[in-house]
Design brief:
CATH architecture of the largest domain: Orthogonal Bundle
Number of strands: 8
Largest sheet: 5 strands, mixed
Shape: elongated
Number of helices: 17
Oligomer: single chain
Number of domains: 3
Helix content: 40-55%
Order of helices and strands: HEEEEEHHHHHHHHHHEEEHHHHHH
Strand content: 5-15%
Strand order of the largest sheet: 1-2-3-4-5
């Protein structure tokens, strides 16, 4: 006969035995009453010919104290019964979950220790120690740690180096940029070098938030366009006419960083947007990559049409996926997101010095070796000089602010289908002349 709430409330231990008594309900659920009158729930079952019993909790109506009402206890028993039908032992399952939880707690504790060990201040002092031998000027060697202690460590020194963002850079520079511009400029450069060093050690991923060109200068950050009367130069870019030859050389590289660089070029996205991509952002079947606003420079979602070569490249790295939240381009060393230095180092290896004493791939105006970010400029030049596509479409492909207010008011969509045709033509140009 099934238990009732009233029956449970009035049930008492007979006191003629020192052992607990058990009153059956259904689905293997029992109410256990001890000689001192305490009441608790048991689930009894048989699996593979072995009888076992499992405590479910005390009788009561306060789940925070581990107490269960009759209804809640029956639900628990029903849940265990369903597990048995799948040949899952409820006790073993519980023990495994407890073990997994302990492992998760240990990992979290280790992560906290790791972050405390790798704060911005700790990495900065490590970087300074490594660079001391290179600084011949004693004053210069002294200025590095003193300027950081005075203006940087009090603001961001305690933060894990992986968590430093552009907002943190603002907090450091805003109070000093106009008051001591020369020192502030040097401090910014020092922060940038330290964060680059952290990226080299795989302690952080993504773009360097302290970088001036293509970042603080262009991103609406309120810093003057000139520092000490000097105008920062743009990222060196390869002339668009040489792109087919470059791609022909790049596709011969059989490495994940080469695949990442191809995808970056073919989609014209920013370096960090590619390197920090997760599989949950990509729909291979529909050929769409949706970069969330939290990862874009403008803070707005950016839909990227994926041409056939990009889809083929993504399918090559798909076997490395560990799930929706795993990196599309994992580091071969850590399995986490690939370092922002990876594609740059690949480019440097490809850009060997020729007989004329110059690197193979150079910016047309400056004669400097090309950069990864410069491929966005190359794409933009190709759009303007080699195609009849409207400027507004090319700017949308680069996720730039589109024109003035009047022009923007007429471009409320993202022109996705038109951009798909544009990116297909870009792909055809890159590969048709190299095959």
């Amino acid at each position: 006969m099934a238990l009732t709430v009233r029956g449970i409330e009035t049930a008492k231990h007979p006191q003629n035995t020192n052992r607990p008594i058990r009153i059956g309900d259904k689905d293997g659920l029992y109410l256990q009453i001890t000689p001192n009158g305490s009441k608790s729930w048991l689930f009894r079952y048989t699996l593979d010919g072995k009888s076992r019993e499992m405590g479910l909790g005390s009788y009561g109506d306060n789940e925070n104290l581990g107490e269960l009402t009759l209804v809640q206890a029956r639900a628990k028993a029903h849940e265990k019964k369903a597990m048995l039908k799948q040949k899952i032992d409820p006790i073993e399952f519980k023990l495994k979950n407890q073990s997994d939880e302990k492992e998760r707690e240990e990992r979290a504790a280790n992560q906290r220790k790791f972050e405390l060990k790798n704060t911005f201040e700790a990495i900065a002092l490590e970087f300074i120690d490594k660079k001391q031998s290179e600084w011949k000027n004693a004053i210069h060697a002294k200025q590095w740690p003193s300027s950081l202690r005075a203006y940087v460590f009090p603001v961001i020194g305690h933060l894990p180096v992986k968590d430093i963002t552009k907002e943190h850079i603002r907090q450091v520079l805003d109070p000093i940029w106009t008051k001591i511009p020369e020192s502030a400029s040097r401090i910014r450069g020092r922060i940038e070098k330290i964060l680059d060093y952290a990226a080299f050690k795989d302690l952080r991923t993504g773009d360097n938030p302290a970088r001036w060109q293509g970042n603080l200068r262009e991103g609406g950050y309120p810093l003057p366009a000139k520092v000490n009367g000097k105008e920062p130069k743009h990222h060196p870019a390869l002339p668009w006419q040489q792109m087919p030859d470059f791609m022909n050389e790049l596709i011969k590289k059989d490495s994940i960083d080469a695949i990442a660089l191809q995808v970056t070029i073919l989609t014209a996205v920013r370096t960090s947007e590619c390197l920090n991509a997760k599989w949950r952002e990509i729909n291979i079947d529909e050929g769409i990559w949706i970069i969330p606003g939290s990862r874009t420079k403008r803070g707005k979602e950016h839909r990227v049409p994926l041409c056939k070569p990009v889809l083929e490249l993504l399918k090559r790295v798909l076997p490395l996926s560990r799930g929706y939240d795993s990196p599309v381009f994992p580091s071969t060393r850590t399995g986490n997101f690939m370092s922002q230095m990876s594609m740059l180092m690949l480019l440097r290896r490809m850009n060997t010095v020729q007989d004329n004493g110059k690197a193979k791939w150079l910016d047309r105006e400056t004669d400097k070796p090309i950069s990864v970010h410069g491929f966005r400029s190359t794409f933009r030049d190709w759009c303007g000089e080699a195609t009849s596509y409207q400027t507004i479409l090319a700017e949308a492909a680069l996720a730039h602010v589109i024109g003035d207010k009047t022009e923007t008011s007429y471009a409320r969509g993202d022109m996705f289908q038109k951009r798909r045709k544009l990116m297909d033509d870009w792909s055809n140009y890159l590969f048709n002349e190299s095959h």
